[in-house]
Amino acid sequence: MFLRVVVFYGLTWFFLMLLGGIQQATGLLPPQIGLAQWGPGIAALLMLVIFRKDGHKILFFSKDTPIIRYVYALLIPVGIGLVVLLISSWLPMAKSEPQAIYDSLGLILLWLPLGAIGEEIGWRGYLNKMLDRRLRGLISALLVGLLWMPIHISFFAQGPVFISFLTLSIISWSIVIYALVQDTGFSVILAALFHLSINLTNLLFLDVIYETTFMMVNATVWAIVAAIIVLMKRELYLGSK
Question: Full-prediction pTM beyond 0.90?
Answer without folding.
Answer: yes
